[in-house]
Structures are given as structure tokens and as C-alpha cells.
């Protein structure tokens, strides 16, 4: 029987991390909040916690520890939840690895299949994710949030999120530990949580097709509503169809973006109907392109290319956004190589995400290698 979680570390003080820290602390968990840059923590540290409004109520939530010292944040913590964007997961995992205690759970929220990269980083530090560290990820944030002041945020939608461990043979242990921490639904593996991140669909394509409007408005444009014309939605749905074909090839149950929104307790109306869901018209985040392209659509294209699944819409988005932003997103992004699944067949990938070990050959029925992540 896994001990009940009482002490949690939250890594990352963006809106998602602050919302996660506040949501857990207000329920009685002992929460430590860590961020690398002190600027992000300054207002919260001065206040001693986070003021929240929205779906969880309107109140001030104190935190037991607010720090830029990763060792201080992790000591004695049973659960570590990493809320850094996908482009910060590698750095945060490398910072955390020397200070993780045996038996600690490390959960990426949101994962975007990053647990496969994190497992490889942990392995260089002698951490075995099959035994000593319980590694997993969610498909999306446990709750959405927008900042309304440096120490205040509006929280929306405490969500029921997909959750899986890497390797998936550890998922039951992870579910037992996370029960009562967040609302979740079991997911077959971290490729399911990885490719079903709705941000990969809701951000890069609409940002590409609204690029001129975003530039003219200096970013002050509601991409979820002003940006979702009928034509933009048709492009987004075509990308969604490619992602579902990839899921089918991987042996996963395809889920449309509309169904993914419904299963978290939200609705497709968020983007298919007029009206800003947060009641805010704040500046568009750069990471709508600089995170969700290299760590989202680039990853989908890379896996699709290896498995022979055509991804023409996805490929075009990556190419055109790289031109517009003058960044080689494919070179810096998440690919089959960085995930450690390059050269594997579907059977080899399925075995790897289930057991955390590679087949000597990627062909079905091949012998199992003793080499792990």
C-alpha cells in the first residue's frame, strides 16, 4: 500500500504551476513552490502565497515554502509535480535529479511525452524509473489559469486529466499515489498522454493562419475566438484527423479534440463559439508557437514519418512557422531521437513504453534487451 501523499513540490511558477500549488495547498497539502528565476516568485514570496479567483473560489492561499533552491524544494517531498513548459522539462529534470529521494514520484503536468526524455536524463544520474523513481505525466494541466496580477490568478476548470506512468507497467502504482491529489482518468501509456495534448491542435495552426492579425494587434487577440474562423477550424480539424490516424497506428484509441475537451469537463464551445472563455483579452503567449510547435507538431510529424503515417498539414505548419519565426523548430524540438524511440517499429515502441526496456530487434516477438532507458 502506497503511503498517502502529504508533502508536494511544485516546479515552475507560471500560471499552471501557481494554480496547481494553490489548488493543492488550499486542500491541506504541504506545498513547496520552486522556480529558477527569482523574478517570477518575487510577488508571491512577498505575499506569502497566492490569491485566487474563479472556479475554486475567491481567497488567499498561503504556501509553506517558496524558493529558488531546488534542493530545499525537494527534500522530504513524496511527490514532485513539474509544471514547467515542455521546453523547460529537460533543464528542470536535470536540476532535480541529484536531489530526488528513492521512492519519489515525479509527474510532468503537462507531459507532452516528455517523460520519455526525462527518463533518459534520470538514467544519466543513476535513477531507475522502473524501480526507484515513479515517473509519469498528465495530458494537460489539472486546472487552467490566467494571471490577473503578479500574485493573483483566475482559475478555471479543475479538470479530469489523462494520467500514465513511464513505463506503463507502473501506472497502477502511480494511480494509487495520485488518488486524492488530482482528478484523473487512466491512460494506456505516455504516448497517449503525449500526442493528445490539445494545445498542439489549438495553438500552432490558428497562430499560423492568424499571424498577420497577431502582429498587427501586438499579440492582443483572442486566438480562441477571434482567431477561430470557419477556415481556421477546418485546418485545425484536418490536423486533428492526422493526429488520430497516428494514434490508430500506435495501437491507441483515437480521440478528437472535441472529445478531449469534453472529457476534461470543458466543451468545444471554448473555440467553436464566440466569446472569450476567461473573460480576459490578454496578450498571446509566445509559447503558443515556441513550445507547441517544436514539442508538439514537430513531435507528431517525427513519429508519423518513422511509422509511415502521412502528416502533410502538420509538416506544413512546422515548415511555415519556422520560416515566419526564423527558427528551425525541427532541430530544437522533440523527435523520435530525443524520445529514444528512433528506429523502432510500432511493436518496439509499444514494448518500450509498457516496460521501459528495448527489444533487441524492433520486430514483433523479438527478444528483450536488458538495456533500459
Characterise the protein shown here:
With 373 residues, this protein is of the alpha/beta class. The protein has two domains: 7-188, 3-Layer(aba) Sandwich (Rossmann fold); 199-342, Orthogonal Bundle (N-(1-d-carboxylethyl)-l-norvaline Dehydrogenase, domain 2), CATH 1.10.1040.10. The protein is 42% helix and 18% strand. It has 19 helices and 14 strands. It has helices at 15-25, 38-47, 70-74, 89-96, 114-124, 171-178, 190-195, 199-202, 204-209, 211-216, 230-249, 257-263, 269-272, 287-290, 293-307, 312-325, 329-332, 336-339, 346-355, and strands at 7-11, 30-34, 49-54, 59-62, 65-67, 79-82, 105-108, 134-138, 143-149, 152-158, 161-166, 184-186, 357-359, 368-372. Strands 5-2-1-6-7-8-11-12 form an eight-stranded mixed sheet, with helices on both faces. Strands 4-3-10-9 form a four-stranded mixed sheet. Strand 7 (105-108), helix 5 and strand 8 (134-138) form a beta-alpha-beta unit. Helix 4 runs parallel beside helix 5 and helix 15 (293-307) runs antiparallel to helix 16. The protein is globular and about 50 Å long. The two termini are 27 Å apart. 49% of the residues are buried. The model is unreliable at 363-373 (pLDDT under 50).
Short description, anyone?
The chain is α/β, with parallel strands linked by helices. Helix content is 42%, strand content 18%.
